[in-house]
Amino acid sequence: MADHLLKNIPYSVLDLATVLDGSTASDTFKTSLDLAKQSEALGYTRYWFAEHHNMAGVASSAPVVLIGYIAGNTTRIRVGSGGIMLPNHAPLIVAEQFGTLASLYPHRIDLGLGRAPGTDQVTAMAIRGENFNAVHSFPRDIEKLQQFFSAGNNRAGVRAIPGEGLDIPIWILGSSTDSARLAAEKGLPYAFASHFAPTYFEQAVSIYKNNFKPSPFLSEPYVMACVNVVAADTDEEAERLSSSVKRMFLGVITGKREMLKPAVDDINMYWDRMEKEAVEQMLYYSFIGSAKTIQENLTAFVAKYGVNEIMSTSHIYDHQAKLRSNEIFAGLFKG
């Protein structure tokens, strides 16, 4: 029986379109659709893609295209960005792209926005070209998007067609306290990347809630926490499966990024003590284990931080094991 606290919490999925060792991006997109269809059937609220560039093991460089692919092959689940890295794009283009998506799939599209480049500086320069050294204002660009989406923009010289007057919720994404202050100031929902940047999570949530100003978009603070999830029928199997995500984060720390590797029986063969500590720090907000173990830990997490929604991301090599993890996790939120 799921804990009463979890039964009141929406649950969602963040998909990084992780490319498995020995497979291709095409394979990844097919398994993403499979996972999205299962997630819809299991009652998940959203299915989001993150924008990343120049990463061999991550195929979500064009989240707008993937959002359309998933939304076009599902019927109810909300689909969106977690997020679009706004400095990489002109606000008008984002407004037109998401306006197109929202016209095709009404009331199902979310626009999560981040201020990071989603890549290294050299690649960011390649993306932005001559605009790389231009002064970017994340708050101002958000205001431009809101203006383009507003029905009152119909007399402006520059309009988002489609996009104008459509229902496209904007979320602020973040991994620091700056994003928390911005989301609070603008009265927008806040999604925190606690799945890889746990350091400022508690402080950021507190700042957001304490400084929140009601807006036409949101009357009360709304926090979504993204966490790593590896669920299995036993704690032991979940620990084994989690070796894939641990090796992935080891690659981030050492600068040796690779495709997602199969699970191994002894992760300690791949890292030293300092590397282990660094990976475990990055994965601090991870829920690994059986349904019982994750339910206990997740209930404590929700109670402590008062989050309104949980978004799970699961780097599991075996697709059937990933589907099983997604099923087990959904079961925690149902009576």
The poorly predicted ranges are: none
Number of helices: 13
Largest sheet: 8 strands, parallel, barrel
CATH structural architecture: Alpha-Beta Barrel
Q: Overall 3D geometry?
A: globular
The counted number of beta strands is 9
Named CATH topology: TIM Barrel
Q: Summarize model confidence as the mean pLDDT.
A: 92
Strands ordered across the widest β-sheet = 1-2-3-4-5-6-7-9
The domain tally reads 1
CATH superfamily: Luciferase-like domain
Radius of gyration: 19 Å
What is the H/E order? HEHEHEHEHHEHEHEHHHEHEH
Q: What would you call the quaternary organization?
A: single chain
Helix and strand content put the structural class at alpha/beta
Percent helix among the residues? Answer: 40-55%
Termini distance? 6 Å
The level 1 CATH classification is: Alpha Beta
- SS strand fraction: 5-15%
Describe the structure.
This protein has 335 residues and is of the alpha/beta class. The protein has a single domain (4-234, 286-331), classed as TIM Barrel, CATH 3.20.20.30. 43% of the residues lie in helices and 15% in strands. It has 13 helices and 9 strands. It has helices at 4-7, 25-41, 63-72, 91-104, 121-128, 138-149, 177-186, 201-211, 235-241, 243-254, 273-282, 291-305, 319-331, and strands at 11-15, 46-49, 78-85, 109-114, 170-174, 190-192, 223-231, 286-289, 309-313. It has an 8-stranded parallel barrel, surrounded by 8 helices. β3 (78-85), α4 (91-104) and β4 (109-114) form a beta-alpha-beta unit. α3 packs parallel to α4, α4 crosses α6 and α7 (177-186) packs parallel to α8 (201-211). The relative contact order is 0.15. The mean pLDDT is 92.
